[in-house]
Amino acid sequence: MINLVILVFIGGAIGAMGREFLMLGVPELSDGFPMAILIANIVAAFLLGLVTGLHKRKVVTDDVNTMVGTGIMGGLSTFSSFAYGAVVLMTASASGAVVAIVYVLISLVLGYGAVLAGLKLGQSGATQPN
Fold it and tell me: Count of CB atoms within 10 A of residue 130's CB?
């Protein structure tokens, strides 16, 4: 039990640092669209699908699945920033509500697709270790 907590702790720190580096590296759009958060969440969704698919095939251990899936992807993705970004967009201008709805829909559709793509790749033989 304590080992799993340590794995999640370390993974969470790695994921949070990855998200911060991403936030620093992705340029802010002039209209306030939270592109860095969108990218972080889509990448995390894909990688979560991938590690889950690999885990189902027994390519990664339970510990790796916990560290990556719960820790790293939990630290990389951020629901609170996603929700906050939608609120900021909604209040930014007269057309803000439309932009916020588009942002939420894009996030959901791309996130869902990213998880499916990651699962498919993880469950395929394309990721077979040598």
Answer: 2
User: Of the candidates 23, 51, 18, which has an alpha carbon nearest to the alpha carbon of residue 37?
Assistant: 23
Task: Give CA 89 to chain center in angstroms.
Answer: 20
Closest C-alpha among 17, 38, 45 to residue 113: 45
- On the question of pLDDT at 30 being above 80, the answer is no
Listed by start position, the domains of the chain span 2-127
- Give the pLDDT confidence of 63-97 residue by residue, as tens digits: 999 999 999 999 999 899 899 999 999 988 778 88
The Cα-based distances of 129 to 42, 69, 125 in angstroms read 25, 19, 9
Q: What is the rounded CA–CA span in Å between residue 130 and residue 62? A: 20
Distance between start and end Cα atoms, the chain: 31
